[in-house]
Amino acid sequence: MIPRKYRLKSPAAFSATYRVNNLHRKNGIILLAGMKKNKEIPTKVGFVVSKKTHKRAVKRNRLKRLMRESYRLLLKEDRTGNAGEYISLIFLGQSRALENDFKTTKQTIFELLSEL
Fold first, then answer.
1. Which distant-in-sequence residues (6+ apart) come within 8 Å of 73 by Cβ?
2. Is 52 helix (H, G, I), strand (E, B) or coil?
C-alpha cells in the first residue's frame, strides 16, 4: 500500500490536477501531472478507473490495484524519474489497459514517469 502522505484524496486536488493540461498516454494508461512545486511536500498520487471503462467493479478495481502496486514498487526502488517535481499525479485507466498483466502495467507506468 502506498503510504498515506503520498495519496491524493481531496476532490479539490483532483479537480486542480485535471485542469492543468499536462497529459501523457501509453498502452491505455493516461498520466496527468499537476503543477510544478517549489516546496518540500511529497508528490501525491491518485488512481482513477471510470465506470465507462468497464461496468464490472471487479475489473476496475483490479486495474487500480495493478497501477497502485506498480507505482509503489517504483517509488520503493526510487525509479520515479522527475515525478518528484510535481505536486500531484493522476493515473487514469482505460479499457485498453484491462488486458495488461502486471509486468506490462509496471513498464507502462515507468515509461510514463520517465516522460515527465
1. 106
2. coil
Backbone torsions φ then ψ of 14, nearest 5 degrees: -65, -45
Alpha-helical runs (H) found in the chain = 11-19, 57-76, 102-115
CA distances from 71 to 36, 38, 88, 113 (A): 19, 23, 13, 9
Tens-place pLDDT, residues 11-60: 999 999 999 888 999 999 999 998 887 778 888 999 999 999 999 999 99
Q: d(Cα 25, Cα 111) in Å, to the nearest integer?
A: 10
> Cell numbers of 70, please?
506498480
pLDDT for the residue numbered 83: 84
Kindly tell me if the per-residue pLDDT of 69 is higher than 80: yes
Q: Which of 109, 114, 69 is nearest to 91 (CA)?
A: 109
Q: How many CB atoms lie within 10 A of CB 2?
A: 16
Which residues on neighbouring strands pair with residue 88, listed in sequence order? 44
